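Example record used in the benchmark description.
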Amino acid sequence: MSMESVAYNTMYRSMNGPDLDREERRENRGVTVRRIMAFATPHRGKLTVFMILSVVVAILTVLTPVLAGQVVDHIVDGGPASTIVWLSGLIALIALAEAAAGLLVSWLSSTIGEGLIYDLRRAVFDHVQKMPVAFFTRTRTGALVSRLNNDVIGAQRAFSDTLSGVVSNIVTLTLTIAVMVSISWQITLLTLILLPLFVVPARRMGKRMQALSREAAEYNSLMSTQMTERFSAPGATLVKLFGRPDHESDEFSIRADKVRSIGVRRSLAQSIFVTSLTLVSALALALVYGLGGYLAVNGHLNAGAVVSLALLLTRMYAPLTALANARVEIMSALVSFERVFEVLDLPPLIADKEDAVTAPAGPQSLTFKDVQFAYPSADKVSLASLEEVAILDTRGGEQVIHDVSFEVPPGKMVALVGSSGAGKSTIAQLATRLYDVDGGAVLLGDTDIRDIESGSLHRSIGLVTQDGHLFHDTVRANLLFASPDASEQDIWDALRRARLDGLVASLADGLETVVGERGYRLSGGERQRLTIARLLLAQPSVVILDEATAHLDSTSEAAVQEALAEALADRTSVVIAHRLSTIRAADEILVLEDGRVVERGTHLELLARRGRYSELYRTQFSDNNSTQVK
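Model output (structure tokens):
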């Protein structure tokens, strides 16, 4: 490795080192290392070979300078030529062996590192999928993605670069110093005296580069956040509607200019750093040639020994500097592991029991029995680092559902109405077990949904929200997400029943048409009908509609209502609606206020009581049938 490469690697390790409290690191280090070893266990065979080959490469690295010195001695002594040729051939063979071993080490390093990345990413991804909805409503997506990318890659370096580097550098340094001392202990001692001139600049410049890197990362993060928000369909629309592109450009330019300025300073600092270290190396080399040449001329040292010392010197400073910074790199890797484990250690609020059962087949009733619920506080569902705040919000834990009881018989419909914040959507989330109740129980048939395996439960209970989400994928892929084994006929049948077959058939790419981010290439009514078609493919026994026709115009609402009629036919259903006209035909209507059922009955019965439902009804239809009741 060249001195310039060593300089750049040293600087990189220093500026990426952690800046944590020493005592805190010491307390967590043992636990973290044990958990790392658990992830490393599947790769222990490759790791063993990797370590052995790293030692072999280190030994071969030291042999070449020694043999080169012997070649020079034989040349000075006048032969024999056969010995010189033999030594030269041996150097060539060692070079080939070193190259082959180096390639194998690189392959093993890549295999182990990428394998570790795969294991960690899979573990974090699977764990995150188990987290409750509250986790995703609080967490910044970019921060979470960073754990799967930057932190996992940082952790991977502990096994590939750092682990092999420490072992090979220790062996290389030990052998190099031993050989140099055997040749000339005086020259070796003098070269070691220059070591602080090599290491101290690395430490000081590393801190400077670390500060610049953090500043650049902060502004890069701000630019990334601005781009992510402004380049989404809703964000771009908002900017255009309020005529603010020039303001956004100015804001982006300020941040980009900061990054540019920091980049110039970093480049200059890097040049000064590399030049300084190269100068120190040159001075040390000059010392070897000067003192060694003097001793050789006076008969105290062979010419070949001087050449060997010079070559060995270049192999001594590299591992010395790398080992001086190994602790920084190891600490950096440990911090990356700790950040990954921080996510893995956040327990999911919803978990299947070991003896969870399959959801009962066929039409089933849905029953709420004395249900009580409070949304969990942030410390139970989130991390401050993922929310990018110093301290988590301590609010939460206030009860929002109070002793709610009702039953939806098989094949019947119950409607929920009430003011905004009355608890309607919360009940929908409890019915689908996006949250667990704090008191009472939700039953599917006669089985508590907490006793049902989650996959089976979600196949039995389907939910359609007012903003049905679609992936940036084809129509076919979005439909098959609900039923991967659905046939072509099943897909078109679901589209027909959702009153969307004509539209899809008219598209140039048909089912292969990409719907765009969140389905923005479709109208609101088309997007909603596609989510209903997806529900029809899933064929749940219970359907929950959470304001599925909100924010639609009359024409779109009529089309969606027809599709909903197909979805609700012969199914147990709970309907939450802004427009009271959509739930007149419900078998029972529940009026919610402040998380309590304050009225229940049919449409006509509730009107006759002249209570809260009647008030909501009059408010809606007194405004030309257009006012929405929240």
